[in-house]
Amino acid sequence: MGAAIGLRDDFDAADLRRLARATRNANQGRRLLALAEIYDGGSRSDAARIGGVTLQIVRDWVVRFNDRGPAGLLDGKAPGKPPC
User: Fold this and answer.
1) Residues 44-77, buried b or exposed e (16+ Cβ, 10 A)?
2) Taking the mean position of all CA atoms in its chain, how far away is CA 75?
3) pLDDT beyond 80 at 1
4) Dihedral sign, CA of 29, 35, 40, 45?
5) pLDDT tens digits, one per residue of 14-64
6) CA-CA distance, 68 to 31, in Å (whole number)?
7) Where are the domains of the chain?
8) In which band, very low, low, confident or very high, does the pLDDT at 83 lie, cut at 50, 70 and 90?
9) Which DSSP string corresponds to 18-56?
10) What is the distance between the alpha carbons of residues 55 and 50, in angstroms, rounded to a whole number?
């Protein structure tokens, strides 16, 4: 198994918890709290339990968070065929 992908270093657990309290999007808040657990030194399994998802989903959240910050944890539209 490969090494875990690290989280960006311009945020910490307290920042993510503060953002989770401020958001009006429940899914983003849940994802922020799960990643805050990792910042606090918790395992990815603990983060998956908090988020109610699998380890693969937590990995996807980390990648999205690293690329786009907290906005990357918002629900997006699924790609698909454009309307006619």
Assistant:
1) beebbebbebeeeebeebbebbeeeebebbeeee
2) 11
3) no
4) positive
5) 999 999 999 999 999 999 999 999 999 999 999 999 999 999 999 999 999
6) 14
7) 13-73
8) confident
9) HHHHH-S-HHHHHHHHHHHHHHTT--HHHHHHHHTS-HH
10) 11
Q: What is the largest CA-CA distance in the chain?
A: 48
Closest CA to 27 of 78, 73, 63, 76: 73
Q: What is the pTM of this model?
A: 0.87
Contact between residue 12 and residue 39 where contact means Cβ atoms under 8 Å apart = yes
Which tokens is 3 given? 């090494």
How much is the pLDDT for 84? 75
Asked whether residue 3 carries a pLDDT value surpassing 70, the answer given is yes
The structure tokens listed for 34 are 């799960």
